[in-house]
Amino acid sequence: MADERIEGMGGTGGGGEEADFVESVEKYAEAGRIARQVLSLARKKAAVGLGLLELAEELEKETVRLGGGVAFPANLSLNEEAAHRTAAIGDARAIGEKDVIKIDVGVHADGFVADCAFTLDFSGQHGKLVEASEEALENALAVMRAGAPVRRVGGEIQKTIAAKGFKPVENLCGHSLEQYVLHAGMEIPNVARGEYVLEEGDVFAVEPFATTGKGRVVEGAFCEIFSIEEEKPVRLPNSRKLLEFVSSEYKGLPFARRWLTGVVAQPFLDLALADLFKQGILVKYPVLCDEGRGAVSQAETTVVVEQDSVKVMV
Ligand code: CO
User: Fold this and answer.
1) C or N: which end of the chain has fewer Cβ atoms within 10 Å?
2) What pLDDT was estimated at residue 9?
3) pLDDT band with cut points at 50, 70 and 90 for residue 6
4) Which residues pair with 202 in a beta bridge?
């Protein structure tokens, strides 16, 4: 799940508990093994006519069945949507025969997240676009190691995508991960940018996005995903009930509005979400769309940085 780059901000930062490094890598690997199986189910199931709500729920259920935690709602973004689209309550949309779909899933083991994604082209017209993000990911991983500047990694992504005749999405980034923190502050840009130099033991989700459009995303109107930004005392009973639930259940990781219908009934659910957002307690993840409405592809995996290479967790 992508990090939207906000001009002038270093990153979201966050807490997360300290854990022994070797143990944490084992947890990332465990999450990765489950994520791989969830992705392979997604490849098998995704087909023209399949409902997005059905697909999202099936991937999330499979995660739990395999012993994982759902690190964020299954992102099923279509065409010009680059990221952050998940099924709404009662969502009637289905995969269409001209669609390019990004399937982005997160699995966690004890809060250690494997974040991964791939793109399927049902149109038959965007095969090269899909290849562009896949190759960019491969080339990025090939230059990542302790001491490599992120600018070089982003440059590799940019170069690979440009060589295929597309644009990288410049304001979406890969991101460092920490326990129960999906966007932990450091970025892997999709272009040659950034000052950070990779260190041994860093854990990153790397996610090149390629597009036929502008190469910049803007926020769309739909928003179905939220997470806790800062916990504060809450006065309204429904808001308090909702905050208590998401805090204990998701511990700072993103969650979907459709997961909350059993906690607070409509229309009080939307009022409570709006109330918590207004107080700065929740942040929103609106759907991000290419500004030129071009088709977007994405490839993503999670890695641990080692002395001379990276270890792929998924
Ligand atoms: Co991600």
Assistant:
1) C
2) 46
3) low
4) none
Q: Which residues have C-beta within 8 Å of that of residue 172, sequence separation ≥ 6?
A: 2, 3, 4, 5, 82, 83, 190, 207, 209, 217, 288
Cβ neighbours, 10 Å, residue 271: 15
Annotation says 84 is catalytic: no
Domain 225-284 fold is Arc Repressor Mutant, subunit A (1.10.10)
Domain boundaries, the chain: 3-221+286-312, 225-284
> Which residue among 62, 115, 134, 275 is the active-site one?
115
Residues surrounding ion ligand 1 at CB below 5 Å: 1, 115, 205
pLDDT tens-digit readout, 235-253: 999 999 999 999 999 999 9
Q: What is the pTM of this model?
A: 0.93
Fold of domain 3-221+286-312 = Creatine Amidinohydrolase (3.90.230)
Task: Determine contact, residues 270/224, Cβ cutoff 8 Å.
Answer: no
Residues with Cβ within 8 Å of 124's Cβ and at least 6 positions away in sequence, in order, are none
Listed residue (298, 119, 285) closest to 206, CA to CA: 298
